Each structure stands twice: as structure tokens, then as C-alpha cells.
Amino acid sequence: MIYLDHAATTPVRPEVAAVMAECLTSDGVFANPSSIHGPGIAAAARVRVAREQVAGAVGASPPEIVWTSGATESNNLGLLGAARYYAQRGRHLVTAKTEHKSVIDAARQLESEGWQVTWLKPEDGVRVAPEQLEAAVRDDTVLVSLMQVNNETGVVQDIARMAAITRARGIVFHVDAAQALGKCPIDLSQIPLDLMSFSAHKLGGPKGVGALFVRMRPRARVKPLMFGGGHERGMRSGTIATHQVAGMGLACTLAVAEQAVEQTRLAGLRDHLWARLSQALPEIHRNGGDAAVVGNILNVSFAGVDGESLRTDLPELAVSSGSACSSGGSEPSYVLRALGRNDMLADASLRFSLGRESTEADIGAAAEQVIAAVRRLRALSPRWGRAA
Amino acid sequence: MIYLDHNATTPLLPQALAAMQEFLGQAYGNPSSVHGAGRLARTAIDSARAQVAALVGAQASQVLFTSGGTEANTLAIKGLAGENFPVLVAATEHASLLDTAGQLRRQGLPVRELQVASDGMIEPAAYARALADAPRGLVSIMWANNETGVIQDIKALAAQAAAAGWLFHTDAVQAAGKRPIRFADSGAQMLSLSAHKIYGPKGVGALILDRRVALEPVQPGGGQERGLRGGTENVAGIVGFGVAAELALQRLTVRARRTEQLRELLEDSLKSLENIEIIGTSAPRVGNTSLISLRGFASETLLMALDRRGIAVSSGSACHSGNGQPSHVLTAMGVPETSARGAIRVSFGEDNSEADVGALVEALRALIAEHDAARSSSLFGEVG
């Protein structure tokens, strides 16, 4: 199997798994980090190191990092928590149709609670422009939530310019950076946003752990979703999973250290894949364009083939059609539709997402398999025959 | 280090670690992905669901995985509470429940605390009165208390709730793996579990849910866990939970007998010491827990002194460690402050031995002797 689905999840790095194993069994640092006896203090020290690692990776200070069970919880805590804290200021939220499902569902939840939501749609078919945000914010806008890197197309948005707009108006700005950390430089000491979501399993860390950055100066506030125990400065209760946060900390440090070199390498492989496909196959479309896309993602729509048939025809290739979170459903990607693709093209799309393990040989084999499958399906397709 | 704090957390079983390592290694797929790597992860989650269900006599389809006991408790309460759906929680519940209840009350929702008798048990008359107050609602009463080990008669309480038209949730985090639990026969519609209290990993738990109960998700997004809990599943954690649950069921009798023997040995040995009181003994308790009060001591001083001697115990719940407040559980039971202030919780696990008990008793004896010597010399000093 060729695994080109790193935007869905990544393998845990062996050194990360090794650190995690040290925090689990009776000969390791297994105690509850809230316990005040020696073993508990040893566990708390591991948690502290991990917090410093995550903070260091994004230019934050350690107390600004709040552990969660993953980016979905971070997004929920960021949106619902901030909205509920600041509700007395107004009840208007700005977000985009191309956000991750967890942001969309949290925004819909707020709509059901009486909030007004402005759903931005990338006007140029690629990304939300800062001017669009500027036009959408109102006097009663409390919160803006936009992702830094889109999970389906890899498109990078200009978060710094957006943050300047929200900060000037005193609006809380939340950014979902689940797909950005480890791929784009993030320096929160320079970008005046308030809340940012991270996930460990997208960058070589374990599933089931993430973090929310909550700025201390000026202080951003969220109402907790979970109470009890007062962990994480009261913002998120529940016993901290030492092995999970230790794994996330190390994975962040490693990913950020290798980021520049690795992104250049992967962008080279990715561009090679696109060159192979676009030379061999007419009528294919690169979703998200080719400017300002993270180095590891390529999203392609293939005219004249049925999406479901295409995926079944590629049994040895682990890729996805859009987000893994929506892949259970048979709906074509809402992200690609928001970018202006019709249902047919949105459905007949593949997301290739490369990672640390990806090699030139993988890319070559993947290209061959996809080219063969598309040619085979097009040969069988009466629709393609007419179009050609 | 002698670890006597298994109610705070337990070490992971080597078998659970071995199973987890596969999913921290080669088997890394996202269970929502439809390709082979994803399907492998999905299958592993399904097996764990069956293993966890078996531990508590539930069906696999009733198991909803969460990030831990706190999230399970939060989901149970917040997912149902409403203006016309009052919530009744025991005053001795875990902080995750009481704090959630407190937050709902501040939002103006009808939430009430149910007082307990001096032995920690729910008072039947007060319970009946509370249930009669509304035609429906949600009761939440923990199966076994994390500080005292006191066990409630869940079956009777749930039956009474059902007769009054109320739904019933029980936090079974401290009961699971320590005594037999059958969700199907309990009369409860919801039951919370945590993996790291049964020798599984931290960061994973479950809400066992009767699917006829219409819960609102606390964490939407992504549609996982039948739309009730969004987010990519913690596959390795869930797999570890499954293995821990299977072994907990296999070893249930042995573990329960073994830890109860150690507790009896401890409590018998302490009888010879003065100014010591064991709290909650007049009620049924889980076998591994002993809440010991040493009059004249402060819990934290005792805890640190024992820690210096290489013995890890707790002053009540780890979640409240360090805040110096008397335990809300003991306050609710009406334990006098002089006793509550010097309480330490000893919770045994499967790795403990008679020698560990001996070391603890010796340490306590020495601490009491030091304390008495210091006290008499200071008395002497005052006289002189």
C-alpha cells in the first residue's frame, strides 16, 4: 500500500512512540500529574516539558497552551467557549464555508442558539481575501474563525492580514491550524490572533491529543466545555494524559525543526506528481491552484470519471476524496463545491497528501496507478466519449 | 516507591501497552478513512467497543468513546439538562459532575444537590422527596465514591428514579473493575467509565448509553461516535482501554479479593494506633479504598511525610490536590473538620503486597510518635 493520506493522519514517529511508552507502565512516569506526591510531580514535570515544546514551536508562552483531546475539541472550545464568554458584546460570528467540519458544526450550534453567522466563500475560488473579511465584520461581530491551511486543498490563507483586521476592531480571532503546524511557520509572538487550534496526529504525534492556544496578553477568554478538577487554568478539566502530551510535545519540536527542509522536499515530489498526471491526462484540474499551497498536498479533479469508481479502482493507493471526517458520507466535498467545482468534478477528486515516509518511488507508482485507472474508466464512460 | 494511589490513576498493563504499540506504529490509519489503513483502525475500535461492553454487561453499540471520565460525565449531564429537565446530583459526586452541575445552575437551569447520610449513603426519604418535585429529569449518583469507596445501591436508586419518571446516570469510574457491573440490569440509562482507573491509558473513557436517550453532543464536528462525539478517535488509547477492560473482567475476582485482603490487614493494623479513624466503614465500600483520618495532622503534611518515606498516597481526590480545602465528600457526610483535615486516602492495586501495608503502618506509627514527641516537648516548654 502507498500511503498518501497524511492530511487524514500520520504515523506516530518511532522516537515519539518511545517517549510515550516511558509515561505509561509501572516502571515509567505513570502517576496522575495532578497528584502532589513524588510520582505525580515527576509526571507533572513531563507535562511541563511538553507544554514548553508546543509553546516553543509556535512562538507562544507555555501557560498559553491548553491541552485538549484533539483539534476538534480545540475548535469547539475556541468557538463555543469564546462565543459564550463574549456573548454580551454581540452575537455575530464570521467564518467560511471551506472550514473543517468541526468549525462548521460549532458555528451551526451557535446559529441554533440565536447567533448570526456570516459564511464567507472564497471569491476567487481559492481563498478568503482579507477584503472579504473586512466587508463582513459588523459592530456586533464578536468572533472570527478561519483556518490557516485548508485540509482538502492545502491552500494557505493570509492569517497575519486577517489578524490585523480583527485586532484593530477588538474582535476575537480563532484560527484552526491543525493542518498548518509543521508545514508553515507559525509565530504567535508576531501575529495578533487570540486563539489557535492544533492537533498532534497530523504531524507525527498520537491521535487523541491537541491543544488550544489562548493568548494571555491581551488576554483572550473562553468558557470551558468541561468542568471539574480545574485543570488547564480552569479552561479544560480532566486528568492530563501524560504520554499523549509528551508525544505531542516531541512531535511538534521535531516537525518544526525539520519543516523547511521537509516542505521543500515534499513540494518537489508533489509537483512531480502533478507534472506526471497533467502530462498524461487531459481535462484534469488542480483544486486550490498552485500558488500558496502547503508543500505536501495536491488535490485533483478528473473530468469524465465517477469518483466512487475511481477510488475503488485504486485499491493499493491510500488517498482520500476530501476530508477523512466526511468520507463516511457519500456527499461530494463541500469544500470543492464552495470553490466553484460542480458536483461531478467535486466528487471525482483525489487528495494526495505526502509525509515524512513519502519517497520518489511512491510518487512514481501512485502516478502510474492513477493514470491507468483514469484512462480505464474514461474508456468505459459514454459521457467522456461524448465530451472528447 | 510504594504506590498506594490507584484511585488517582493506575499503571498501564504491559499487555495493553503491547496492543497500543501496534497502533502507534504500523497501524496508523484514520478510522474514518475508507482505505485499508482506515478500515484496520475501524476494526480495532469495534473490538475494543466489545471488550469494554463486556466489562460492564452492556452491548457494544452502547459504548461511546470519550477523552475520559470527565468528558463522559459532562456529556451525560450537559447532553440532557434543560429548562424542563431538572438535574439531581449527589453532593458526594466527582468534581467533574458537581462543577458541571454548578455551571448549569448558574445558567439558570434547575439543578439540585442531593444530601447524603453520615455514612455517605443517599438518604432514601430525601431522595424520594426530590424525585417527587418534578415529573421527569435526570439523576446522577456515582456507583463507588473515589475518596471513601462507599458504594451506593444503584439498582434500587435507579428503579426508584424510573418509577418517578426520571432518567438515571451513574459515574462508575471507581466501581468498574473493582466489582461486577451489569449495565443491562442496573436500571441506569447512562454510565461513565475511565480507562486509566482500570490499568488502561489516560486520555480515554466511555459513556455507556441506552440509545433511546436523546443526548445532545457537547463536542460536535466530524460525525464520529454516531454524531454524539466528534473528533478523530484516539485509536491506540481505545485499543489499550479494550485490553485493560478484558483483563479487568478476567481478573475481577482475584483483584477484588487481593486488594480487600490488603485493606483489611491495613485497617486491622491501624486499630492499635490512637487517634486514628477510618471513614465510611459503616457503609459498603469497594475493597481497595481506605480513607484514614489522623486527628491532629494536616492531610498534606502527612502526604508529604509519607512521600519522603517513599510511599505515595493521596489526600482525597487528585483533582483537588494542592488546594488545601477540606474534601467536599467529607463535608457532605458531616465528618467534623478536625477529622477531615487529617484524612489520607489509601487505594490499593493489583501490584501491592503485605509488605507495602507493613511499610505504611510503620511509617504512620513513626509519624505519630514524632508528632506526639514534638507535642509533649512543646507542652513541656510552655509549662517550663
How many strands in all of chain A?
A: 12
**Quick one: biggest sheet of chain B?**
7 strands, mixed
Strand order of the largest sheet of chain A: 2-8-7-6-5-3-4
List the total number of helices of chain B.
13
Query: pLDDT average of chain B, as an integer?
Result: 94
Helices and strands of chain A, in order, run as: EHHEHEHEHEHEEEHEEHEHHEHH
N-to-C span of chain A: 33 Å
The residue fraction in helices of chain B comes out at 40-55%
SS class of chain A: alpha/beta
Q: Mind explaining what this structure looks like?
A:
The complex is a heterodimer of chains A (388) and B (384). Chain A is of the alpha/beta class and 388 residues long. Helices cover 40% and strands 14% of the residues of chain A. Chain A has 12 helices and 12 strands. In chain A, the strands form 3 sheets. Chain A has a 7-stranded mixed sheet, with helices on both faces. In chain A, helix 1 (14-21) runs antiparallel to helix 7 (242-280) and helix 7 (242-280) crosses helix 11. The longest helix of chain A is centred in the last third of the chain and has 39 residues, at 242-280. Chain A starts with a strand and ends with a helix. The relative contact order of chain A is 0.16. The model of chain A has no long low-confidence stretch (mean pLDDT 94). With 384 residues, chain B is an alpha/beta fold. Chain B has helices at residues 14-23, 36-55, 69-78, 95-106, 124-132, 154-163, 183-186, 235-250, 252-270, 299-308, 328-332, 337-340, 354-383; strands spanning 2-3, 63-66, 87-90, 111-114, 137-140, 166-171, 190-194, 205-209, 276-279, 289-294, 311-312, 343-347. In chain B, strands 2-8-7-6-5-3-4 form a 7-stranded mixed sheet, sandwiched between helices. In chain B, strands 9-10-12 form a 3-stranded antiparallel sheet. In chain B, strands 1-11 form a two-stranded parallel sheet. In chain B, helix 1 runs antiparallel to helix 8 (235-250), helix 2 (36-55) packs parallel to helix 8 and helix 9 runs parallel beside helix 13. Chain B is globular, with a radius of gyration of 22 Å. In chain B, 59% of the residues are buried. The model of chain B has no long low-confidence stretch (mean pLDDT 94). The interface between A and B is large, with 76 and 79 residues.
